[in-house]
Amino acid sequence: MAEAVHIRNLVKRFDSPDSPGQSVFAVRSANLEVKPGELVTLLGPSGCGKTTLLRMVAGFEEPTSGDILFGDRRMNEVAPNRRDAAMVFQSYAIFPHLSVYENVVFGLRLKKLSADEIKKRADRVLAISGLTHMATRSPNQLSGGQQQRVALARAIIMEPRVLLFDEPLSNLDAKLRDQMRVEIRELQQRLGITTLYVTHDQIEAMSISDRIVVMNSGVIEQIGTPREVYAHPATRFVAEFIGKANFLNATVRDGQTIDVAGVPVPYVNQANAGDQLTVVLRPEAIALSDQGGDFPATVKRAMFLGNIAEYLIEVDGVGEWLVDSPNPGESGLFQPGSRVFATPSRAALHALS
Amino acid sequence: MFATARSQIRVLARDPILLALVVVIFAAILIFVVYPLAMVFLASLQDRSQWTLANYALIGERRLYRNALWNSLSVGALVGFIGVIIGYIAAFVLTRLDVPGKRLLHYLMIVPIISPPFVSAVSIVFLFGNNGLITRQLLGLMDFSIYGFHGVVWSQIFTFAPIAYLSLRGVLASISPTLEDAALNIGASRWQVFRKVTFPLSLPGVASAFLVVFIESMADFGNPLVLAGAAFPMLAPQAYLEITGSFNLPRGAMLSVILLLPSITAFAIQRYWIAKRQYVTVTGKPTASTSKVVSGPVKSFLYGLVLLFSAIVILFYGVIFVGAFTQVWGFNYTPTLNHFAYVFNVGFDTVKDTLLIAIITTPISGIFGMLVAFLVVRRTFPGKSALEFGSILSFAVPGTVVGIGYVLAFNQQPLILTGTLTILVLCFVFRYVPVGIQSGIAVLRQIDPSIEEAAQNLGASALTTFRKVTLPLIAPAFFSALVYAFVRAMTAISAAIFLVSANWNLMTVQILNQVGSGRLGVAAAYSVVVIALVLVAIIIINAIVVRMTRHMNMVRF
Ligand SMILES: Nc1ncnc2c1ncn2[C@@H]1O[C@H](COP(=O)(O)OP(=O)(O)O)[C@@H](O)[C@H]1O
Ligand SMILES: [Mg+2]
């Protein structure tokens, strides 16, 4: 039942609403293979084309060119009501004139299933979603989290081939967001439905996804597991968007070593001696000490965040670095103005191509 | 450009019902809105089957036509001006001030909208005519004449100020009082706040209300026919007289075109220039809080003006009501049921005809309006803006023009409709559907489109989505479209007067005929019947719409 989704050379061009005759590319040549049962997240800043891509899969937007396939069936010409790709909308899009129960069974009624079958499936889904005791309520008596559950229940009761989410948690407060995130992931794994999930929140993407698609200005910058996109960002944009990053300009000395502002740093590489590299260095991969290390620096700003201390340091002759130090004791915090030494951890370096 | 159109056509082709709807609506608008208008233009350029501009040259040559044009324009401008002042004051008092009886006063303000448009003309004749209660009986004036400029202006003010009131009410209610509070807070005086904040914010609404009243006044037929008199020609009745009196179709058509131009211009300004501004300036949700912009005495003064206007409305309708039960107004005030007996014996066919036509028109108009609104807001297809324009165009086309157009267009092959019920129904549907379309558009724009997408996503076809989701959600607009369609079908005159026949007659036409032959009592009785039927219909339509959407609670996301 779980179905692969293939997206091939997908392009969407809109006529610009502001200047007639002009057009904007919301999605430029996207290629993506979603495996059966996999949860893939589209991640990127607002306006990068995530929603547009998702809406093309749902059938609400006509691709300018390119193909969408579910399994081996081409979907471009299939009307949205025939696609069997249930969507959870950012605004939930609950029918305000129908009760919770009627919202949830809306799609089943259209399928003309028997009353028994509808009742059976509704009872099960309402129970899974924790909505059983509010089935008769009207949607305007529900909290945000409950509305979210109705939207989810309404989608999964269809037992769709593909499940689509457009920023489903963006209207919830932080606590509820964390909780719903876990619920959605557990449900998706239990049902094994192929899922495309749109978010602009990197933590959400990291925690929920099998794989992440990082998008920027309509272009897919990288596709990979959460670990891959974090540890081996393909582009500067990915490195900056997922987590925090310092970028070091380095010169290759040999296959084992690079130079950063004259300081040799061990880094295994394939480049030729003398090549210029941009190296990503994550803030948590830098050790600070007042005893000695690779790069002398001055602390410019220090913030105590509980589990970590967040520093901004000025490295002599190099520039500013962000540094996250774990487990800072109350006493161990370096004060602004103090002289320190910063030492990058070798394993954490990653050169951008 | 073409690529977009092609992709839109592809989307259409995938949804055959939508495609069929769009094609049918386009065809209907072409045949019943555009084609009759074109026929009027063509007729105005002909004289004994020759192409000529001679008809238009007559405007320069003949005083009568020049005067008619000038009179219509000046009456329209003056009524627009005074109507907007009254409407603004009433809207301000009834939305922004804390005064007693707001609800009742609101209803009194809008009564004129739901009654035949020349009820006030008949009242004015009762009160100020040659045997007028006030002019003759109370003041004993012998040589006073209400006919002409004064009569028409007064009558139209009472007919059309309520329209200005309704549209300004929306505008004023949506200006957040916190803006005024903020200005007061930084030290502006009350008058400064009004001049620098409240009024500028409502200015686009004021301009828009003026233009709407201007259009209505230009197009008005009943009031001028009753009150203008021979010495004060106006365009709409003159066009009618050319055709029914002198059987001169080309001249009637020419006068209609002249009548059409200012209306279309006003409409274009209102729609493409002012409406855009309004969208930008007036934001925020309607609020209930009261304005602190006016001081106590000013407040009392404004409230007094609203009370005065309401009192005159009561007087006008009271006079009609009493007149309907009075033997011979001005001579013999004995109560009688004779006039009603006449309406229900001699005139009963007319009552039945009118009611039947209104009952057929109402649902067609309501559903058609909601469908077009839906297509315009929610769907993209080639020619969409043309369709929207075409479907609301008839709002700006004076009824006289429509009536002449229908006569010209549908008394020959391939579509012979003159003298039938169909032509009246079609005329009413296409003439009054713009208001339904507009209110449908306004409500739809406030409903999150993803609600309808969700329905589709769950397997609903376009038609099911419309029936199960869209229609219940736009019930308020649907209701007002139905009421408007019914009211207008019951009260319309200017186009209908060209289309009635021995078989199918309308009460409004009867009222005019009775006024024309001096039987004011019967005219009043007809008016009372029309108003009563309209009130009953509103109650019934409300019940139906509530039933249709029983589970509704209007949550907006
Ligand atoms: N209907 C539309 N018409 C014109 N431009 C659009 C339309 N929908 C989206 N866009 C543009 O396409 C780009 C991507 O939008 P969207 O997919 O909504 O981004 P995201 O969901 O990543 O925030 C934006 O620049 C947006 O302005
Ligand atoms: Mg989005």
UniProtKB/TrEMBL annotation, chain A:
| Database matches in SUPFAM superfamilies | MOP-like (SSF50331), P-loop containing nucleoside triphosphate hydrolases (SSF52540)
Q: Which segments constitute the ABC transporter domain?
A: 5-242
- Mode of membrane association: Peripheral membrane protein
Q: Which UniProt keywords apply?
A: ATP-binding, Nucleotide-binding, Transport
Its GO CC terms are:
ATP-binding cassette (ABC) transporter complex, substrate-binding subunit-containing
Q: Name one GO molecular function term.
A: ABC-type transporter activity
Source taxon at top rank: Bacteria
Pfam family of the protein (one): TOBE_2
Give the protein name, as stated in the record.
Answer: Polyamine ABC transporter ATP-binding protein
The entry's localization annotation reads: Cell inner membrane
Q: Which InterPro entries does the record cross-reference, listed alphabetically?
A: AAA+_ATPase (IPR003593), ABC_transporter-like_ATP-bd (IPR003439), ABC_transporter-like_CS (IPR017871), ABC_transpr_MalK/UgpC-like (IPR047641), Mo/tungstate-bd_C_term_dom (IPR008995), P-loop_NTPase (IPR027417), Transp-assoc_OB_typ2 (IPR013611)
Organism annotation? Nitratireductor aestuarii
The family this protein is said to belong to = Belongs to the ABC transporter superfamily.
Q: Which PANTHER family match?
A: MALTODEXTRIN IMPORT ATP-BINDING PROTEIN MSMX (PTHR43875), OSMOPROTECTIVE COMPOUNDS UPTAKE ATP-BINDING PROTEIN GGTA (PTHR43875:SF1)
TrEMBL record, chain B:
ABC transmembrane type-1 domain segment(s): 69-270, 351-541
Q: GO annotations under biological process?
A: transmembrane transport
Keywords from the named record: Membrane, Transmembrane, Transmembrane helix, Transport
Write the lineage as a comma-separated list. Answer: Bacteria, Pseudomonadati, Pseudomonadota, Alphaproteobacteria, Hyphomicrobiales
Q: Which family does it belong to?
A: Belongs to the binding-protein-dependent transport system permease family.
Name of this protein: ABC transmembrane type-1 domain-containing protein
Q: Where are the transmembrane segments?
A: 17-43, 73-95, 107-128, 148-168, 197-215, 252-269, 301-325, 355-377, 389-409, 415-433, 473-500, 520-546
Topology of the protein relative to the lipid bilayer = Multi-pass membrane protein
Question: What are the subcellular locations of this protein?
Answer: Cell membrane
Pfam families noted in UniProt? BPD_transp_1
Organism of origin is Nitratireductor aestuarii
